[in-house]
Amino acid sequence: MDVFSKRFLEYLTVEKGLSKNTIDSYRRDLGRYLPFLEKEGLDLQKVSRKEITTYIGELRGDGLVSSSIARNLSTIRRFHRFLISEGLSEIDPCENLETPKGVIRLPKTLTSEEVEALLNKPDSKKRLGLRDRTMIELLYATGMRVSELVSIKLKDLNLEVGYIITFGKGSKERVVPIHEKAIALIKDYLKDSRNRLLKKGNSSYLFLGQGGRPMTRERFWQIIKGYALQAGIKGKVFPHVLRHSFASHLLEHGADLRSVQLMLGHSDISTTQIYTHVTSERLKRIHREFHPRG
Questions:
Q1: In 3D, which of 226, 220, 252, 227 has the Cα closest to residue 111?
Q2: Residue extent(s) of CATH 1.10.150.130 domains in the chain
Q3: Which of 66, 83, 85, 189 is the least buried, fewest Cβ under 10 Å from its Cβ?
Q4: Per residue of the chain (294 residues), what is the pLDDT tens digit?
Q5: Topology of domain 112-289, per CATH?
Q6: Helices (H), the chain
Q7: pTM of this structure
Q8: DSSP label of 152
Q9: Are 204 and 218 in contact (CB under 8 A)?
């Protein structure tokens, strides 16, 4: 079975060009599914719909929410279709199997006041504070994924025109506009903090950590978590929350859904539509709180 999964992951990487994060997600799902088949003594080429249904039941028993079960089923479905295309199997056990539907889970967002408080915590007069402020500002200003943020290279910047070229899921290239405040911070960071972090070394990456090495997602998660605590923001705050906040705040202020979709780099507008639910829920909450008849 490991041979088949390895071939599948190589296919997704080489032929489909999926990102490392997406490949890791497929790997985790298969790492759960294949041991189940082995435990049940099932032949991969002869898995039936009944076994898939049993597996979904096991995922539910493990406490997985509907969205996670749906993602696992999507991985399994794609894996078995790959086996068929390679002549390794003849039957698709997932055919006509409905994806579990559940309650829509709204993404966590920050209020405009919380974003402002978060942005004000890094001390821009200090080397690391200027870098951190620039990264947080850019994340909120563009709605980029943190993986895109830490992957920005100097050649991807065009500060005169005001945009960054970034590569999202599936290595899809897109042009991301940036506003004047973010541009000013990047220029200050390039003139001061980056050179001091780089010392006498060399790097093609925009954002650097100690020793001139490229900033990592994990380290930036720690940084933003620390500032959120200082700002007194309740609940977990992680880089993706700023992406969610970027989208919902744009819609609140009148941006159209199609434009937000393009800025986020979503291939399907239905993915972007979740933010309309966030906006609606916030308006309902404000109405309940402030309406005199509430």
A1: 252
A2: 2-85
A3: 85
A4: 578 889 999 988 887 778 888 899 899 999 999 998 888 888 877 788 888 888 888 888 888 877 788 888 889 999 988 988 888 877 788 877 776 665 456 678 899 999 999 999 999 999 999 999 999 999 999 999 898 999 999 999 999 999 999 887 767 788 889 989 999 999 999 998 999 998 878 899 999 998 899 999 889 999 999 999 999 998 889 888 999 999 889 888 888 888 888 888 887 787 787 777 666 665 555 546 654 554
A5: hpI Integrase; Chain A (1.10.443)
A6: 2-14, 20-39, 49-61, 66-85, 112-120, 127-142, 146-150, 180-191, 193-198, 217-230, 239-252, 257-264, 269-272, 274-290
A7: 0.65
A8: -
A9: no
**Domain 2-85 belongs in CATH node 1.10.150.130:** yes
Give the tokens for residue 23. 């490949």
CA distance 194 to 130: 9
Tell which residue, 141, 209, 218, has the closest CA to residue 176.
141
By annotation, the residues acting in catalysis are: 145, 169, 240, 243, 266, 275
DSSP string, 176-216: EE--HHHHHHHHHHHHTHHHHHHTT---SBSSB-GGGPBP-
Residue 226, number of CB atoms within 10 A of its CB: 14
Cite the residue boundaries of each domain of the chain with CATH code 1.10.443.10. Answer: 112-289
